[in-house]
Amino acid sequence: MTKKTFPLSHVYRLLEPGPVVLVTTSYKGKANVMTMSWHTMMEFEPPLVGCVISGRNYSFDALTATKECAINIPTANLAKQVVGIGNCSGNKVDKFRKFGLTLLPALQLAPPLIAECYANLECRVVDTRMVNKYNFFVLEVVKAWIDPSRKNPHTLHHQGKGVFMVAGRTIKLPSKMK
Amino acid sequence: MTKKTFPLSHVYRLLEPGPVVLVTTSYKGKANVMTMSWHTMMEFEPPLVGCVISGRNYSFDALTATKECAINIPTANLAKQVVGIGNCSGNKVDKFRKFGLTLLPALQLAPPLIAECYANLECRVVDTRMVNKYNFFVLEVVKAWIDPSRKNPHTLHHQGKGVFMVAGRTIKLPSKMK
Hints:
2 copies of one chain form a homodimer. Chain A is an alpha+beta fold. In chain A, 16% of the residues lie in helices and 39% in strands.
């Protein structure tokens, strides 16, 4: 793996801008992946992430049963795969094979990491109180990886119906905020 | 107001890409505004939004007491105001005056809308179960406004410590997803 460890205290910098992500799970010996945009940071450290994973997704059962997933952050070169993954079910196809994605073992979890994604977050479910009503899971990021060669990753930001905003330039302003 | 009503069923298209937003509240006759990036869509319609508003924010008390706020979505031309608002407290200054923002009345709420923002969402708190543990509020968007002349708004996406990604180009791929 060419990726290096990314500090947990900085994970919010990856998810706060709202990129679409690929969530991997592993259940009964079978890995799966889904596309997700409904997530938010909830705490800096340990990093907590809240996310909605619908009961209509095949990944829902895996996440509920195993309490483990990985959040993989793709960039614009993977746009076709991101949409393709969102438009089929792991119940019917092996999405990793279908979309030519390379799997890497996680350090602390059974779900695989996606090599083509520039960052990977190993997560455990830590709160399921809001699952029944909202399909809302609280995850703790227990290990984070990043490709250090990707300085200004062109993440994808879904605007509905297959339209994505691609991350543009960055600006820096003096700020006391984290 | 030059803004027109925006369909509630499309609100997810505004928030799903993860823009930094300005949250307005009104409490004891005094309006206030804070900068927020920790939010996620939770349901399409009626649109539900989950967000973290820390107890350290002056707005926390207003939101808890009144159960009302507006989410105002700024664009890159407001970057200085967005950072400035995040770096001072409504406990000490009138941030609207300090940053030269124009207030418009909301239709269904006491909190004002910010005229300079390209979209405004009138929200009510509908679930506070996760407030004690995570400062996490579930909001329902009850009315939405948009400036129809702004076709490709350059929203701001916080990457930590005053660094913002500015929304770039958009791409469209064939998709069956909402």
